[in-house]
Design goal:
With 308 residues, this protein is of the alpha/beta class. It folds into two domains: 216 residues, P-loop containing nucleotide triphosphate hydrolases (Rossmann fold), CATH 3.40.50; 67 residues, Alpha-Beta Plaits (2-Layer Sandwich). The protein has a six-stranded mixed beta sheet, sandwiched between helices. A four-stranded antiparallel beta sheet has the order 2-1-4-5, covered by helices on one side. α3 packs parallel to α5 and α4 packs antiparallel against α5. It is elongated, with a radius of gyration of 23 Å. 36% of the residues are buried. Bound molecules: adenosine-5'-triphosphate. This is ATPase. It holds the Pfam family ABC_tran.
């Protein structure tokens, strides 16, 4: 079964705002694929184009080899789409929501129980509760069941873990791994860079452009510089100091640390320590660290050519 997505030079503008710029992307059949980027990057726009809810300004998208514009009705029959904003009827119960979505797709819950069973057993105890009264994690599970009730070949999940606690987030990713085993192509849009590691391949997207497509491991391997974590008594002041340091290639605040790269191949830790001491910093700790997806994203998004 071909459940691939092929995107060729796809662009979308809203008036003067170009939300997507010449996107080229191939997502393989059965892949668990991540679309990773910050708010406003264009993730929702891309999903809405793939879900046949928007028309492209230019370019072509094919799902299972079928054109998203010319044959949009066919696509709707085999596509599952879970929008970012809560898509359920708050004043219907859990079971009524599921029945509603089954009816829309001209099917019955009992005919599709094999597809949703593992998720359904977790929300069944609450089946008579109004959807609006569910916790965030439960709403998300119900929304996933509703998106799956017609046995889609391709599933698009727009920020499914935004605003959900960390236990529910990790349960959700476990559920996606289970669905992948059923052969569904799953595309997850997320602003959480750490979730990239849970995908087989990811596209990093910013300002409507794809910066890179690869496996998370290969993206990290391609990080070109030696990366250092820098800490001191005052991290914010250290950030300002490092911005002035003549050999700084990049410096970003990452949680409690700063991530720093030097323009030179030969990094001189003592020289940097002395520079920061001279600036009045104390308790300076400098350590070489492995780059994360977020470091790669920052490096790619601040490359001069990425900003043109
Ligand atoms: N209907 C619209 N009219 C005008 N501009 C829009 C519209 N929808 C989105 N945009 C703009 O298009 C760009 C991409 O937005 P989009 O919602 O696709 O990004 P996103 O990555 O999903 O981010 P978010 O999580 O914030 O929705 C943004 O600049 C946004 O302001």
């Amino acid at each position: 079964m071909d459940a691939s997505i092929h995107i060729d030079n796809l662009s979308k503008s809203y008036g003067t705002i170009q939300a997507l710029k010449n996107i080229n992307l191939d997502i393989h059949s059965g892949e668990l694929f991540g679309l990773i980027g910050p708010d406003g990057a264009g993730k929702t726009t891309l999903f809405r184009l793939l879900a046949t809810l928007l028309l492209p300004s230019e370019g072509v998208a094919k799902l299972c080899g079928i054109d998203s514009v010319a044959e949009y009705k066919k696509i709707r029959s085999f596509l599952g789409y879970m929008p970012g904003k809560f898509s359920l009827y708050q004043d219907l119960s859990v079971i009524e929501n599921l029945e509603f979505f089954a009816t829309v797709f001209n099917t019955r819950i009992e005919d599709n129980m094999d597809m949703i069973h593992d998720i359904w057993v977790q929300i069944e105890p609450f089946k008579n509760r109004l959807a609006g009264k569910l916790s965030g994690g439960m709403k998300q599970k119900l929304a996933l069941c509703c998106a799956l009730i017609h046995q889609p070949k391709i599933l698009l999940l727009d920020e499914p873990t935004t605003g959900v606690d960390s236990v529910s987030r990790s349960e959700f990713w476990q559920m996606l791994k289970g669905l992948k085993k059923k052969g569904i192509t799953i595309v997850v849009a997320t602003p959480y860079m750490d979730e990239a590691n849970l995908c087989e391949r990811v596209a990093l997207i910013q300002d409507g452009e794809i910066l890179q497509v690869n496996s998370p491991a290969e993206i990290v391997e391609q990080f070109e510089k030696d990366l250092y974590s820098v800490k001191s008594d005052d991290n914010y002041q250290t950030l300002l100091d490092l911005r002035e340091f003549e050999h700084t290639n990049s410096v970003f605040l990452f949680g409690q640390n700063l991530h720093f790269t030097d323009t030179r191949k030969q990094f001189a830790e003592d020289e940097l320590k002395q520079y920061l001491k001279n600036k009045g910093r104390s308790n300076i700790v400098i350590e070489k660290i492995q780059a994360s997806i977020e470091d790669c994203f920052m490096a790619l998004s601040t490359k001069p050519e990425a900003n043109e």
